[in-house]
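#lab-general

N.A. 3:47 PM
ok so I finally got the sequence cleaned up, no stray characters, all 141 residues accounted for. can someone with queue access submit it? mine expired

B.Y. 3:52 PM
send it over

N.A. 3:53 PM
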Amino acid sequence: MISSDDFLTLLVERVPEARPFVEEKYELREGEAPPREDTGIELYADLIGLLTRPVLLPALGEEEPDGDLLRRCFDLVEDIYNIPGMYAQSAVYFQVLECLLESRRYLTAAIPFLKGNSRDGVSSMVEGYEVEGYERGLPPL
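B.Y. 4:20 PM
back already:
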C-alpha cells in the first residue's frame, strides 16, 4: 500500500519519463531524489501536471503507443487509486481517468492497460456518458 507521501518517489522510479517534470516543479537538481515527507504535494495538481498531461496522454496519442510505458503508468494509477479514502480515488478519477475521454484515441489505447478499480471507473464513466461503442461499459479482460 502506498501513501500520498510516496507519490513523487514512486512516480520517478516507475515512470522515469516524468522525472524532468518533477525536477522542474520541485526545483531539484538532475538526479536528486524527490522529497518524501512534508512535500505539500497536491495529488490533484501533480497527477495532471506531472503524469497525465506531460507523459500519459502524449503516449496514448502516439501512432504506435509504447506498451511498456502505458503499463507502468496505469499500474501506478491503479496503486494510487487503491490508497484508502476518497481523496486519492477522486484525484485519479478526475485527473487521469476522465482525461481518457478527451480523445477516442486515448480511450482506445488505454483500454488494454486498465485493470482493477481504475478499469471499473472508466467502464462506469463510458457507460454513464454513453460513449459510442461502450454504452455497456468496457469489454471484460
